[in-house]
Write a structure and sequence with these properties.
The chain is α/β, with parallel strands linked by helices. The chain is built from nine helices and seven strands. It comes from Brevundimonas staleyi.
């Protein structure tokens, strides 16, 4: 067997097969990613429903109460955190994983506080998504390549910026740095 599902460890395949409810809701405004991820998750045994916008997701969730969800953090018409809350209102045992192209600790914290069980940066592999959805609460393995000191500094600045509601002046004041210096840091990509 050479399908993508064959790459999953047998214990995860068995766990998916043994699930009472395999309904999964996938929200992403990138149609190519949504289609590819949806097919990969279906191949692994989930019953996938997809949406491409917050509005479409809200409408679909009126009739669906998924056991699992994979949600994009930033969409053209809103924020995926709104959908985390909508799912939690209908089903508080749902397992939700957030995906984002903007991997910052501050947004990860916000996602987990809203009710997500994990947070993955794009492009996420379907096997990593499945592992996150089925995680049992054990501590994850330490990363092979931990963040550099520059990345930790950048993440801290991003967190304070998030907590200040993206107000550059307030963030600069709290961090004790010049506003222009902060603007230059925010304009750059995250260090590795």
């Amino acid at each position: 067997m050479t399908t993508a599902a064959a790459a999953l460890p047998a214990n995860l395949e068995d766990r998916i097969a043994g699930l009472h409810d395999r309904t999964l809701f996938l929200l992403d405004d990138d149609q190519a990613l949504r289609t590819r991820m949806g097919r990969a998750l279906e191949a692994r045994g989930f019953e996938v429903t997809t949406a491409g916008s917050v509005g479409e997701a809200v409408e679909l969730l009126r009739s669906h109460q998924p056991a699992f969800a994979v949600l994009d953090m930033r969409l053209e018409d809103g924020n995926g955190l709104r959908i985390v809350e909508a799912i939690r209102e209908r089903r508080d045992d749902a397992r939700i994983v957030m995906l984002t192209g903007y991997g910052a600790i501050a947004t990860a914290v916000a996602a987990v506080k809203a009710g997500a069980v994990d947070y993955l940066s794009k492009p996420a592999d379907a096997d990593d998504v499945v592992k996150a959805l089925l995680a049992t609460g054990d501590a994850p393995e330490p990363p092979e390549n931990p963040m550099s000191a520059d990345r930790v500094r950048w993440e801290h600045i991003q967190r304070v910026y998030e907590l200040c509601d993206h107000n550059v002046s307030e963030t600069a004041r709290r961090l004790g740095m010049h506003r222009r210096t902060l603007q230059r840091i925010l304009a750059k990509r995250a260090p590795r």
